[in-house]
Write a structure and sequence with these properties.
The chain is 56% helix and 6% strand. By secondary structure, the chain is mostly helical. Helix 1 crosses helix 2 and helix 2 packs across helix 4.
Length: 171
């Protein structure tokens, strides 16, 4: 039994082989060569594999999707799109960068989680709101920039001192 990720990557590569598309795993961005009909075929293959048990699914997912084939299809469309973005074998060997990395920051922080739960109990409490904001600021990643390695014209345009290191908040 294959994992969902393996099955998706293999289905995309095999479909491109069958259709005679020029591609090389880890070099080609498959999103650029797949046509809408190809995407539908990949989704159908993965959906069929999950339905027949050839592709792994948790018991809770089986229970959730057994009675709702449309929901399974929506899930598989998301899975295929996710793999096309993140799997190096089919995205041109590019490391996936989150569009909004700050949104994930602190999501596993126990103090921030507890503050958010407390806010649900007391939604209008300013002290809790201030504590949440302070904790989120503390969790923001900091980036040290050695300006001495930057081009001189950029340093001048930004008004930076070439001899000092600057600490900027990552966005």
């Amino acid at each position: 039994m294959k994992t969902q990720s393996e099955a998706t990557i293999n289905a995309i590569i095999n479909l491109c082989n069958e259709r005679g598309y020029e591609h090389t795993p880890f070099e080609t961005d498959y999103k650029t060569i797949l046509k809408p009909d190809d995407m539908k075929d990949v989704v159908e293959l993965i959906t069929a594999g999950m339905t027949t048990g050839q592709i792994q699914m948790s018991e809770s997912a089986h229970a959730k999707f057994d009675d709702d084939p449309k929901a399974l299809r929506r899930y598989v469309v998301g899975l295929v799109n996710d793999r096309l973005r993140k799997a190096k074998a089919i995205n041109g060997n590019i490391k996936y960068e989150y569009k909004q990395p700050g949104k994930l920051s602190g999501s596993k922080d126990p103090q921030l989680k507890a503050l958010m739960q407390l806010k649900q109990l007391h939604p209008d409490n300013e002290d809790i709101e201030q504590a949440i904001t302070a904790r989120q600021e503390a969790l923001k990643p900091k980036v040290e920039i050695d300006v001495s390695v930057l081009p001189a014209d950029l340093i001048e345009k930004l008004g930076l001192n070439k001899t000092e290191e600057t600490t900027e908040e990552a966005e």
